[in-house]
Amino acid sequence: MCQLYCSSLEWSECYDFSEGMKECEYPQLFSTESGTCENFTDVTCGTRHEEKEGCNYLKQKYIFRRGLCQDTYPSCKNKSDGINENPIRRPAPYFIICLQDRLIGGGVCEFDSFWGVRTFPFNNTCVQAYAIPKAEYSLGRLPSCNGTTGSYRYDDSPCDVYYRCDSGTATAVKCPENYNLNTVSGNCELNYPCN
């Protein structure tokens, strides 16, 4: 395994789980060139097995031997590089950051003060809920346009937030400060009454 190395001068003294056998911290791998643990992007494993899952590192197997490893090290297997929804804490604003099928970080999408709503992980970034299609994410608010054209208010949004349909494509729009959507004209108007 590419994350394992022998700390002993004599390889003959090294075998699985011996005192001389050591393991790099996840997601590092052991470089035979430098003789140190390095970032996985800088190591060539050759014939050594390259483990990508944090829960398959021996240290994690021992620490989490009674389970719950995936809560700490969610899998990035077959996920795109960048921000992805945390598969353990969903649907929610929590995300994981993946690179080459490895977990390299995580966090929480922030509140979007301009739109006045929470953001969620979607398409490798944190996106405000009005711009996420309902059909693609349970917390999304953007309806389908179904071939319609025009400007429409969301069912339960402030009067300055609406979506525009152009040739069946929906886009979230926010009026400037002190402007609201005139649902008749389809434009933002200064101090337009909100009903």
UniProtKB/TrEMBL annotation:
Top-rank lineage group of the source organism: Eukaryota
InterPro entries registered for this protein in UniProt: Chitin-bd_dom (IPR002557), Chitin-bd_dom_sf (IPR036508)
PROSITE patterns, per database record: CHIT_BIND_II
One GO cellular component term: extracellular region
Molecular functions per Gene Ontology: chitin binding
One Pfam family, short name: CBM_14
Domain Chitin-binding type-2: 142-195
Protein name: Chitin-binding type-2 domain-containing protein
